[in-house]
Amino acid sequence: MKWILFAWKNVMRNKRRSLTAMLITAMGTAAVLIGGGFALFTYESLEEMTARDSGHVVLAAARGFDNDEDVPLQHGLSGAAALAAQYAAQPGVRAVAPRIQFSGLVSNGDKSTVFVGSGVDPAVDFRLRGPQLDFVAGEAPGPSDAVPEVVVGDELAKLMKAKLGASLTLLATTTEGNLNAVDVIVRGIVKTGVPDIDRRLVMTDIRAVQRLLLTDKVGSLAIYLKDTAQTAALAAQVKAAHPELAVRTWRDLAVFYQAVRALYNRIFGILGLIMVVIVAFAMSNTLGMAVVERTREIGTLRAIGTQPGEVVRNFVLEGVAIGTAGAAIGMLAAGLTTLGLIFAGLEMPPPPGRSTGYPLLLSFSAPLYLGATLVVVALAAAAAWFVSRRAAHKPITEALAHV
Amino acid sequence: MNAPTIALAARATTVRLTDLRKRYRVGDEWAEALKGVSLTAAAGEMVALTGPSGSGKSTLLNLAGLIDTQDAGTREIAGVAVDGLDDAALTRLRREQVGFIFQGFNLVPVMNVADNVEYPLLLLGRPPAERRQKVAEMLERTGLAGLGGRLPDGLSGGQRQRVAIARALVKSPSLVIADEPTANLDSHTAQQIVDLLRELSHERGAAVVVATHDERMSAHCDRVLRLADGELVTGELQ
Ligand SMILES: Nc1ncnc2c1ncn2[C@@H]1O[C@H](COP(=O)(O)OP(=O)(O)O)[C@@H](O)[C@H]1O
Ligand SMILES: [Mg+2]
Predict the structure, then answer these.
(1) N or C, which end of chain B has less CB nearby within 10 Å?
(2) SS3 of B80, please?
């Protein structure tokens, strides 16, 4: 206890210098925590976004993910209804959504363009995707007993001059390789924020798609979980139970998520490294000056029986005191920034390939805060050890003669 | 005041330095600082080392105080043959047996008076109650009662050297090394400091070796040794 008190008094001996080191440490800590919080928030948002989009675990027939079919649904999944019912009944599963990805031409009678279609269970899918589908107009389609209803991307609607209630014709190749057509009514217009998708998107009832493609297969079954953390467990379970199926998790399918994560990990990893260097430098500098100034004092303490290790320990305590204070200030600053951003409501500009921004928020992560503090304190201790060990072993008569 | 002197004769020799030689490298030359000096001091005895500047007083004190090593000769402190001990063992020996008083006081500026005096006991791992009691007693004996909370910066030179004496003697060492302890003090204060040092070391049975070129100071010592050019010229018993 006494030693800590002496260490603190020594830290306060040159207030301005110690304060500078503390502030540099605080800024380094805050930068890492804010950068890390931003990366974590981005990961979490993208995770949620991707999982909402693809489902947590996606099943298909063997080769169903290979994208090398000769005709649509050549590697489609048969008997999907039974599988869907089986997994929907399992605890922890929120819903199971059958899907068919297909493409073709959409026409308004005057002109036509390529669409990328998605056959979904309207009762399930629109609920699951939640805020990701931003309805510009209209609503989700109902069941397709009479004339099927569709939701189209806003750019596509503009291209087709389609208002709500407008009639369009979808033209696609069937599973037998022939052309087939179906008339549909526009029930909703959505915006995903990705212009490439908004220009081509058509969503409709999967049963209408099956009629159009002349099949009873589905492309895939997307299983949605209540808890994302259960993804791997469920994927393993499905693989064990159905070795004949192809199984992917949202993570496998999330190319964008993976790319962003890899990029951010690198950016913030480098930021962290730079901070480590800066903090180590500031600490060594401050403590190094203290050691030089106190050479004679070190000689005195050594003469009256202080071991070199004890001299080093005292400087390490000083380093730890500065590091802890700096980390605490840094954490406070990062914490306040995290809170402040919640109230500030700032928007980030749209990322590349997107037309909408996203909120600028930071995630709070206790392990991140704890880890950063430990790293900073360890750095301070290491710097103190490094700069004081030589002076502590200096010949005592030399140290005492130091002016 | 004859009693201590009689008792002295029966006391064990605390310091036995035999034929010490030490030379320093100065450029391409070797400067001989000690050319075979022997010295003994008994418990409770106060030995003065006098001689002109550069005669080797500090060199001899550093060897006696175990903060330097000689080129030849042997040393025995408090019954321990110290030559050949490693740094950790020498440090332990200093911690237990040797007190230092410096010309420039060398107090720790961030520690208050009481903390400075307590420091050697802290190093020895003495329990808090014992430390408190010994520090209070020492402050009382050195006339510093009431100043325990003051920082060294706020004290006069004489007061600072009293703190240094208290710090050196609080652990009741066998040996006290004092290198020109009064050189930074006016003569009246110097007188008081010498008296205090003598009184306390007699009382606690510590041998004191004090370097000084102040005649008034050596006059108060039990024995005066004169060094010149790295050699002992006279030794006289008072
Ligand atoms: N570290 C050193 N390096 C070189 N020469 C030294 C050193 N210390 C002392 N000397 C020399 O040794 C001699 C004795 O010095 P010292 O013991 O300090 O004498 P005193 O304390 O009596 O003035 C002097 O000639 C001095 O110049
Ligand atoms: Mg000298």
Answers:
(1) N
(2) strand
